[in-house]
Amino acid sequence: MNGNDRSIVGLVMLAHGMVHTFELSIPIFVSIWLAEFDVLRVAGMEVAVTQATLGLLVTAGYALFGLGALPGGIVVDRVGSRRLIAACLFGMSGAFLLLGTAPNLLVVALALLLWGTAASVYHPAGLTLISKGVSDRGTGFAYHGVAGNLGIGLGPLLTTILLIVFDWTTVALVLAVPAVVAGLYALRAEFDETAAVDGVERGSTSSRPTADDEVATDGGGAKAGSGVDSLSELATASKQLFVGAFAVVFVIVMANGLYYRGVLTFLPNLLSGLPGFEPIALSTLVPGLDGGRTLNPERYFYAGLLLVGVAGQYVGGKLTDRMPPEYGIAAVFAVLAVLALAFLPVAAMGIGPLLVLGALFGVTLFTAQPLYQAAVADYTPAGRRGLSYGYTYLGTFGVGALGGALAGAILTYADAGVLFATLAGLAVVASTCAFALVRRGRRDATEA
Question: Where is each Major facilitator superfamily (MFS) profile domain found (predicted)?
């Protein structure tokens, strides 16, 4: 990577890691809020604080994290990535500063909504910056994904360690500080946001024409001013995206989001009922400790699965430099379908084989992300890149959020076998769509 690449990648790695650190620290606070707050007072009414109440509040913040991606994508095409990433970092910091001074649960709720709104703009802004500014794009996506997974895995761990020493409000304030520093860096870092595009997108490994070739009137140039100024322009730009191959990519990212939330939302609960995952009393490990305190192995398995995803992000990013991303997508989701069907049979064999499968599962699950991110770049014009990534993360985090509800309903009215079969079906849909893109590329190459 050249100097411009390194400056951009350094910023997006920092910002991406912070987004997911904040995201995964919130569930750690939930059990504390349950004990600290008795009622939620809104407009003169009092609502008892229960797991359902807090679940709705947290879900509202996470929903905005996904739903705000589309308007974030529209804005990034107008104002550029740098300012939007800085606004995201300052906004998340402000949200946790508010959280750290919250006198009641209503203010906690407002802080969560502010965090979701601020965080939602990051992915379209960060991914647009990589796709348009980094010449070694696949490596940029890889490092970006690695940083995100470090935030996913280490964020909850950092929060838990801080809570040993400080109360939750102080921890929230401590977490807010690095985001301010990162925001200041975003404003001062020097780089060219469009260094990797110049008339025609560079860095694509595909043999077919890119979207910039096909839609020359739609902002494909490196210096293309773009974005939408009205609802009618938004409708026109969206139509231009969805009448082409991007519609197929969008189905892939929705299937990925549903699979991701579907498998991860209830995985700790599923694991807790398996042999080898029984709670371990701390007194058996450290004599003299209260025997009522336990270690829960399923939580460490879960965290480990997320952490090994770092390797998957790196592998996926490197693959985009060596092959058209649709080939990688087809293969990865075929493997995910097999892993979903194998999960319960392997679990019945004991914890050893399950650990091996879990490691493979974590790597494969996160290998998909850089591949579909690169596919979005290949199948959209540079001038609509922010809008494209906005739709991508609306599909991944917005539509994908329904995966948790889907999994919960299946586990309530059927069983885990049906759940994993359904997940396998979603993976097959994504793999089939990728094969459709492969056939399209071959047809275009033949016609050319």
Answer: 1-442
CATH class of the domain defined by 1-195 = mainly alpha
Q: Does domain 214-448 have CATH number 2.60.40.3080?
A: no
Q: What is the distance between the alpha carbons of residues 380 and 238, in angstroms, rounded to a whole number?
A: 11
Q: What angle do CA 400, 406, 407 make, to 5 degrees?
A: 105
Pair 68, 117: CB distance under 8 Å: yes
- Give the mean pLDDT per block of 10 residues along the chain (448 residues): 86 92 80 79 75 71 82 82 92 95 89 93 89 83 83 80 84 94 90 70 42 38 49 80 86 92 78 78 66 68 81 84 89 96 92 91 90 85 76 83 79 88 96 91 69
Residue 53: C-alpha distances to residues 34, 38, 48, 58 (Å): 10, 11, 8, 9
The answer, as to whether pTM is greater than 0.85, is no
CA distance 119 to 138: 24
* CA atoms within 13 Å, Cβ hemisphere of 203: 30
Count of beta carbons in the 10 Å neighbourhood of residue 382: 31
Whole-angstrom Cα distance, residue 56 to residue 58?
A: 6
